[in-house]
Amino acid sequence: MGRKNQVFDNVLDLVGNTPLIRLNTITKPFKGNYYAKVEAFNPGHSSKDRIALYIIEQAEKQGIIKPGDTIIETTSGNTGFSIAMVSIIKGYNCILAVSSKSSLDKIDMLKTMGAKVYVCPAHVSADDPRSYYEVAKRLHQEIKGSVYINQYFNQLNIDAHYASTGPEIWKQTEGKITHLVACSGTGGTISGTAKYLKEQNPNIKVIGVDAYGSVIKKYHETREFDEKEIYPYRIEGLGKNLIPTATEFDVIDEFVKVTDEESAHTAREIAKTEGLFVGYTSGAAMQAIKQLNEEGAFEKDANVVVVFPDHGSRYMSKIYSDKWMNEQGFFDSINEEALESIEF
Ligand code: PMP
């Protein structure tokens, strides 16, 4: 890429066109070739830059917003950061309702990027007036000239990935991709990317990654909402306690569920083996690949693309903190390496 010698008009010119990086070491025991779409290379360090820019520009094109207006969103952090970044450059006010499950680092970062942040309780139902959905809806009604991005229920979330992530992966693999593995939160990434890729080659297999404690996998299999599937879990940005319309279940072939603990260890392993410092859900996606390999899901000529959604720096107080890992019970008592660095 010619990026090195280029001068850009502003930071938004760097959104998208992220690299596809071959995974060489962590994948050694597996059959097939593995490539990571490393979304941390976006200027806001996550895949959410794509949807923030795309959705705001669509609203501009349709004359729905003009500079000085307010953009509102519910977010676990990444989307908020991206919206805040786009708002700074384009001259919008940014209001974010976030879950109390989000790390303090993320919340501070959003404030640094000029956003007004409302922290809402994580473990209340979506229709509770204290939930971040309801808070965002209320603010949208109260503030004149505001736009509610509503990423879980916005078709443009899917369209953003259909327009960029899908074509990029197709080009980067020269059409040789056989499997796509991606986390599903809003479902925008996997749905938009899969839709584009399957239009090019309907044989590409699309595997979604879901968390234990989320309803998504069960819904995909039964088309029924099963409340019994829902319980608290640690991974941020993956899985859900409701069914987002930004997920197109028909373009996804299967879902794999992963645990908080194994995903955290796998994220740390990616850093140590590939030198890629990525977030918790990247660990989850890689963990899904490990499980799929145990089931013999890939042949030796498979070309598997896995999406790594964000950067590891956002998880310093969580999965990359030995203390936090120990508090979760994620280190067993004989892990000397871990215990050495913990202050008691
Ligand atoms: N990983 C992280 C860290 C995220 O913030 C998100 C978005 N919530 C996802 C994965 C899932 O992406 P999507 O919402 O497009 O399904």
From TrEMBL:
Any one GO biological process: serine family amino acid metabolic process
Domain Tryptophan synthase beta chain-like PALP: 12-310
Entry keywords, A to Z: Pyridoxal phosphate
Keyword set includes Coiled coil: no
Cofactor list: pyridoxal 5'-phosphate
Matches recorded under SUPFAM superfamilies: Tryptophan synthase beta subunit-like PLP-dependent enzymes
Pfam families membership: PALP
Domain of life: Bacteria
Keyword Cell division: no
Family named by the database record: Belongs to the cysteine synthase/cystathionine beta-synthase family.
Name listed for the protein in its UniProt record: Cystathionine beta-synthase
Record lineage: Bacteria, Pseudomonadati, Bacteroidota, Flavobacteriia, Flavobacteriales
